[in-house]
Design a protein that fits this description.
The protein is mainly β and 679 residues long. The chain has one domain: Neuraminidase (6 Propeller). The chain is built from 10 helices and 32 strands. The longest helix is centred in the first third of the chain and has 10 residues, at 36-45. One calcium ion is lined by residues 17, 576, 616.
Length: 679
């Protein structure tokens, strides 16, 4: 028997898969100006309404929209060669005329080992050989440079238990609820299946003579899960705070969790980033180290994996490790330090199925969204950028100590260097603050005696250094021609008027923005930069483009998340309006989540694709020839209420159609004439 998890004492932000509010760091320059770009543009136009309106967090005044319309339409961007798709709320995928869509590798599809066929009744052992759930960040690694064959590697951010357990049918379960047994425990088989639905998949795929992409049976096909053994590398390797009953010397970790976006190294490995890992852990109610409290590890757990009774005799601690309470004399006797093994970037070599994934601790510990590299230059240090996706958290960059050499470059380059946090000033300038012992207030007196202290509590170090709290940094992307770095700031409805300024100009920010910056002298290792807003998301007439002009219907978007530049410098923007807001009052103008393309030179934005109901759109990446775009559809049907789930009335049955449960899946988008997608 199962009963519904009643989240009476749970943090309501579980529902949005978000981080809890923390006390924001006061900004020294709050409410001085709107962003430098918009202020300058508005002054040029001789008006102040726009600047004032932004400063006070309101919506754009209609008179500004009329003034812009009177200026006449801009010439259409030659970079965007497709007809815009209208916002919509149908339970299907909509693409422009002349395009087609194939569904590939949905959750549960047989991937490796014995290739067990998909059924909702599959057990944990089947799941370990099938595609994981909740497809997210993704990369296509061509085989021998091919655009028709490669390794598709993707993250599986999380799972939706009600859609994946046959025994959940008929229960009143919401999107984040887990089935509990009558004694309050969890079924070990269900928990193990959930553990195996997380992680990363490596899938060898090939386009056949009919243009259809298929999985190729290959020993490189692989599942990495929330239970796969991994190595700890970098400054935290062997640190006493990484010791557990499973890894008494602190050099290993078990599995990776909540892998959201990703990165691709110059030497051809894949980086999976650990985002909302804190929801999987519980701790005791006593005093806890800041390395737990600053990260939101609380005496409650959304997933309740620790409540699965009967740890297998051959696998001690598989479930107990999610309880970080102190139970033994020393750390080697319990799992108090297990949460310290998460919040990292994990390097995976997809070409070697025997390779052990490596957690690279010098890249910092936080709710990593993804990683984006600056172009690797022979003989120069390597630079990468990463955002911490929680309200009022920071954007970071890492610069390697050693120079990059193409002939010898490997993951060890990520183990030595300098981690910086970004300060965005309201005048359009910015500074990178080194998170290094003895600099920027990081001393024994502030709790940061060593580099390991700083990296284990990266958030706290950036607090002390005075980084700028942002509106939830999601993906980054790098313009291949200009070197400008773009980041999505998806939203932050808790930002107050007093906190609204600069790169985070709106109070109660419901729709988000995209910021971009240029490093001083175009040098990615520089410690200063200049920034501007690329767009302020919002509905038609309210969102603003690069020119400060109101969006038309074809450009409107909310909650930008995924970003990717193709070779022609189209910026692909993927949206993630949370499932409880999708198509509800005030949000229906946006319809379902979408994929849009933007021209970085003109700022034009045009909707390219609309996804099925309840889903987020993510993972956009193309083949080298640009003729195939892979896009992920995550959590279709998540907008289904608990009551409707119990009645068997789902918001989505995509992709299989009713009455099948909805499944996350990859889309393959091509042009009927075989041309470059988007051109
Ligand atoms: Fe998993 Fe920040 O999106
Ligand atoms: Ca995301
Ligand atoms: Ca999401
Ligand atoms: Ca998101």
């Amino acid at each position: 028997m199962h009963k519904r998890f009643v989240p009476g004492h749970a943090d309501p932000s579980f529902a949005a898969n978000e981080e809890p509010l923390r006390e924001p760091v006061p900004q020294p320059d709050f409410q001085q100006v709107v962003s430098a770009r918009y202020q300058r543009r508005d002054i040029l136009r001789g008006g102040v309404g726009l600047a004032l309106c932004t400063m006070f967090g309101g919506l754009w005044p209609p008179r500004t929209a009329q003034a812009s319309a009177a200026a006449g339409p801009r010439p259409a961007s030659s970079r965007l060669g497709f007809s815009a798709v209208a916002a919509g709320s149908a339970d299907t995928v909509v693409v422009p005329p002349g395009y087609r869509v194939q569904v590939l590798l949905p959750w549960g599809e047989p991937l490796c080992g014995e290739y067990p066929a998909f059924s909702v009744g599959n057990g944990a052992a089947d799941q370990a050989q099938q595609m994981g759930s909740h497809h997210d960040g993704m990369h296509f690694f061509p085989l021998a440079g091919s655009s028709a064959e490669g390794l598709l590697v993707m993250n599986h951010e999380y799972a939706e238990p009600r859609f994946m357990h046959a025994a959940a049918a008929g229960l009143a379960l919401g999107a984040v609820d887990v089935p509990l047994r009558t004694d309050g425990s969890r079924d070990p088989e269900q928990v193990l299946k959930e553990i195996y639905a997380h992680g990363v998949s490596v899938a060898h795929i090939r386009r056949d003579a009919h243009g259809v992409w298929q999985l190729v049976r290959d020993t490189r096909n692989r599942r990495i899960t929330a239970a796969t053994p991994m190595a700890i590398s970098g400054p935290l390797r062997g640190d006493p705070r990484l010791r557990t009953a499973w890894s008494p010397d602190g050099t290993q970790a078990r599995g990776t969790l909540n892998n959201c976006a990703h990165g691709v190294t110059p030497w051809g490995t894949y980086l999976a980033c650990e985002e909302n890992w804190r929801y999987y852990f519980v701790r005791d109610a006593g005093p806890a180290p800041v390395s737990l409290t600053r990260y939101g590890v609380e005496p409650l757990s959304a997933w309740r994996w620790h409540l699965a009774a009967g740890n297998a005799a051959d696998d001690p601690g598989q479930f107990a490790r999610f309880d970080a309470s102190r139970r033994a004399e020393s750390a080697e006797g319990d799992f108090r330090n297990e949460p310290h093994a998460f919040g990292w970037v994990v390097e995976i070599d997809p070409f070697d199925p025997q390779s052990v994934p490596v957690k690279r601790t010098h890249l910092g510990r936080f709710a990593h969204e993804g990683v984006v590299f600056a172009p690797a230059v022979e003989g120069r240090p390597l630079t990468l950028y990463s955002g911490d996706d929680a309200r009022f958290e920071y954007i970071y960059k890492f610069v390697s100590s050693r120079p990059y050499q193409a002939a010898s470059g490997d993951g060890s380059l990520l183990d030595e260097g300098t981690l910086y946090a970004a300060r965005f000033s309201s005048d359009g300038s910015g500074e990178w603050l080194a998170l290094v012992p003895g600099k920027n207030g990081l001393t024994p007196a502030t709790g940061f005696a060593t580099l390991a202290d700083i990296l284990l509590n990266t958030r706290g170090a950036a607090d002390v250094a005075g980084a700028t709290p942002m509106d939830r940094p999601e993906w980054g992307a790098l313009d291949p021609a200009t070197g400008q770095v773009y980041f999505s700031l998806t939203k932050n409805e808790r930002r107050t008027r007093e906190q609204a300024s600069g790169a985070n100009p709106r109070a109660g920010n419901a729709h988000g923005q995209i910021v971009r910056w240029r490093e001083a002298e175009g040098d990615h290792t520089a410690t200063t930069f200049t920034w501007e807003l690329f767009l302020l998301a919002g509905s038609a007439g309210q969102g603003r483009d690069l020119q400060g002009q109101p969006f038309a219907q074809e450009s409107s978007l909310s909650n930008p998340d995924g970003l990717w530049f193709d070779a022609d410098r189209r910026l692909w923007i993927q949206t993630d309006i949370s499932d409880e807001k999708l198509n509800t009052t005030g949000w229906s103008v946006f319809g379902n989540n979408a994929l849009l393309a933007a021209d970085p030179d003109t700022g034009e934005v045009r909707r390219f694709m609309v996804g099925p109901r309840g889903a987020e759109i993510t993972g956009c990446v193309g083949t080298p020839d640009g003729a195939t775009l892979f896009v992920n559809v995550q959590h279709p049907g998540a907008s289904t209420s608990a009551k409707d789930f119990a009645r068997g009335r789902l918001q989505s049955y995509w992709p299989d159609g009713g009455p099948a449960m909805p499944r996350s899946a990859t889309l393959v988008i091509t042009r009927e004439d075989g041309g470059v997608v988007g051109a």
